[in-house]
Amino acid sequence: MLLLILLPLLVLTLYLIVRPRPVIIPIKDSHVFITGGSSGIGLALAHQAAFEGARVSLLARSLKKLEEAKESIRISSGVEVSIFAADVRDFDAVQKAVKNAGPIDVLVVNQGIFVPQELEKQELDEIKFMIDVNLMGSFNVIKAALPLMKERKDRGPNSIALMSSQAGQVGIYGYTAYSASKFGLRGLAEALQQEVISDNIHVSLIYPPDTDTPGFEQENKTRPELTKILAASSGSMKADKVAKIALKGIRSGTFIVPCNLEGHALAIATAGLSPQRSFLMASVEVLCIGFLRIVALYFQWNWYKDIEKWHEMKKVSEN
Amino acid sequence: MLLALLLAPFLLLLLYFIVRPKPVTIPIKNRHVFITGGSSGIGLALAHKAVSEGARVSILARSLPKLEEAQKSIRLAHGVDVAIFAADVRDYDAVQRAVNDAGPIDVLVVNQGVFVPQALEKQGLDEIKFMIDVNLMGSFHVIKAALPSMKSRKDRRQPASIALVSSQAGQVGIYGYSAYSASKFGLRGLAEALQQEVISDNIYISLIFPPDTETPAFEEERKIRPELTDIITSSGGLLKADEVASKTLDGIKAGNFSIPLNLEGRMLTIATAGVSPQSSFLMAFLEVALASLARIVSLFFLWSAYRSVAKWHFQKKGA
Q: Hey, what CATH class is B24-269 in?
């Protein structure tokens, strides 16, 4: 009864106040520059973007893997992508690559390293590796590309998309360094969006779950047992599905782009002070966030029980 | 409305049973409190407060003269000598030496922080690196150095604490804070994961979220703050360092994961509760009950922030 009046009022209010306003960012005929583009999600994004008619550039460390990637895209869609070998930790190399690639319309900051390990056991150089590549590397890439993006002649909407992870929405056992680097991307993105909105540049954060990639295969080999147990609560996805959903999100300038159902729930629970362009999505957030906080607390209850149980079993097996 | 009133007791009961980690009280009196960045600002205020509550306090900072001044000021105020250690948190070996010399730590306050606000486009990479290195990587150094002795401490029945000083900029990213927010958001990823890793050692993680606080460092920051940063952050409030210290210690003693320090902070904390742990079932109830309102308020805040950004650019173009 009261709801019938309040609900439309809420939706109308949100329609009027959501900022930044909705936008459509074309992919076809635009220059899409993907870091970490030689494998995994980056390569899948390259395939998808090429298929949608974009001009694609890939940046990665290994020239050999880049050439394989280029070949695979030539075979599947007949499109030639440009390749640039550089380590994102080296700003000068990144800047050279960005200059050679030419003005960028859609910057996909996708490079990422993940080495799960208990902080107590993890080597500092592994921690530094993740922070340097995932976080500082992203600053390098954005700093290199931003001047040209800001000065571009055609003032149509542009995008800076950062590849995060569900580990960038919740920190779990074994992921202190990885989650630190991915949470950091959100702080970067929220601030950056306020800084570049006046240049018609739109920031997106992509939040995939565990994704079927060579990177993930490597990670799984060294994952602590408890991390495996806790992470099982979210599903896993194929890279090309993630890529399709990511590009869709980038195209609509969506700030937080979840990739599966659990991801949507996570995105609403962690909406925080993230911008939301869709008044419909904003309405869903407002209506569901209370319930999802209960769900989140339930998940933590479950996880802490699993952790307790695991430690008890270890103690028993040691005695 | 009636439905809500009927469901409330059931919700309270549910939350009472599921909140994790379980509530705890962490004593300060006669325990060893180790504070990084403890020679000035919030760190020094925390040292004063901890001493006044009967703790044995050690402070770590870069400058030996400032440490000696801090030591003197505490001696004058409370007649107690704190131990001082000069080290740069970016230097792991130096931190480890200091931690070993200080002796087993009960309450580790990771408080060092630098902040240089600037639009990413204008900010030097060395400044960005500075903030990531000190605020985020430095925190990893401090925790890694202290963790072994905290985990193997003799009296394991007494709960220990690792408290990280974040910022409201670690809850929402604002114009001019891309690097600072990145480093502070990162602390949350670290903390959420770390809590799951150390709960079995009876160690509790706290994240403190101060607003702008009257400290020497803040005075420096205000001089160079972009105008827009000032405009948008004015709603967060301004606190005195000793107020921050009081409320911080209260939160650490209650083993709270998220510690806001003023009303705006509490609203921010509820809005950004996400999947963070909550050991108080009453606070959990508030989080659930106020989540929707908090998201609406957040969207209004963003509407206002983006309007300020647009207005400022419009005025700049006019001039």
A: alpha beta
